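User: Hi! I have a protein structure encoded as tokens and I'd like to know what sequence might fold into it. I'm fairly new to this, so please keep things simple.
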């Protein structure tokens, strides 16, 4: 009888262990499903989670400046994603979260590992469905994200009026001092040049915010900064009084919105939205660009294609 009871007890323990293991598996599966924010789930939840990095007013402005999730946004990226949310369907509400630029690429440990292939934690944890802050599509980011291109762009060197006659072409940048934002395409380009073209006389880098970098140029604290063409055009139009664009550097880039690699349906919807808006001269996105940049998105793209 004792042996029989031991057998039943052992079987019971195994049965409990199996049920517990199965329950844990179900919980894990449910958690993964909750995190996988497909277009169908966005439509079901009626919420589109949009994470904006307001590094410059050409992308977005936020109030109060130190806010996180209860912010008042304005500016092009904010306005365009409002139109996109409306495009996705009636009743879908955009939910905005303010993030720092580098945070868009953080792993679970809160670090950007350029050589690593992973889904950035903000997307993996479903805090964000998309990044609309005009991300440049480059090699290290493509290990982490998929992109829907909004427009082609060039990196523009921005100098003070006093330096314009001294910095006329890319070779003139060697040995000078530049201010750029960490882990932007500007930062990446200069790092590559310092390892190659400028290896014998590298550019000295100061890591500042994008707006702070422009102000440092205008104040004469650094020799130059680099920005994407949309930021450069906005800054010259609205912000800079004694600084201007000097010349483009690097190849033509593709700038646009960043997505989790698995979210193909959401990417397809975004691509259709952008294509439709670009084709229609009177579209809402073209109006937004005209208001902020003095050119429609269609006109801006034609300008970038013409830049040599």
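Assistant: Happy to help. Inverse folding works backwards from shape to sequence: for each of the 308 positions I chose a residue that suits the local structure. Here it is:
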């Amino acid at each position: 009888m004792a042996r029989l009871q031991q057998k039943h007890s052992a079987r019971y323990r195994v049965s409990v262990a199996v049920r517990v293991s199965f329950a844990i598996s179900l919980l894990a599966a449910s958690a993964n499903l909750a995190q996988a924010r497909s277009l169908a789930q966005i439509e079901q939840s009626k919420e589109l989670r949009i994470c904006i990095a307001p590094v410059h007013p050409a992308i977005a402005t936020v109030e109060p400046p130190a806010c996180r999730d209860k912010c008042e946004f304005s500016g092009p990226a904010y306005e365009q994603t409002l139109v996109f949310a409306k495009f996705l369907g009636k009743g879908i509400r955009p939910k905005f979260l303010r993030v720092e630029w580098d945070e868009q690429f953080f792993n679970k440990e809160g670090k950007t590992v350029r050589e690593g292939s992973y889904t950035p934690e903000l997307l993996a944890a479903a805090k964000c469905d998309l990044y609309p802050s005009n991300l440049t599509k480059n090699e290290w980011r493509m290990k982490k994200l998929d992109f829907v291109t909004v427009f082609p762009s060039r990196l523009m060197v921005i100098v003070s009026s006093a330096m314009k006659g001294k910095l006329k072409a890319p070779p003139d940048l060697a040995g000078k001092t530049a201010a750029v934002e960490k882990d932007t395409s500007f930062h990446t380009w200069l790092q590559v040049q310092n390892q190659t073209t400028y290896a014998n006389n590298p550019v000295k880098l100061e890591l500042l915010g994008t707006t702070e970098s422009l102000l440092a140029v205008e104040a004469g604290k650094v020799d130059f900064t680099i920005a994407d063409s949309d930021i450069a055009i906005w800054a010259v139009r609205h912000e800079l009084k004694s600084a201007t664009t000097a010349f483009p550097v690097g190849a033509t880039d593709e700038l646009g919105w960043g997505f989790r690699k698995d979210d193909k349906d959401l990417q397809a919807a975004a691509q259709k939205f952008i294509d439709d808006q670009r084709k229609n001269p009177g579209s809402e996105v073209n109006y937004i660009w005209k208001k902020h940049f003095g050119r429609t998105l269609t006109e801006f793209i034609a300008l970038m294609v013409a830049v040599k």
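A useful reference point when you look it over: The first helix runs from residue 2 to 35. Feel free to ask if any position seems puzzling.
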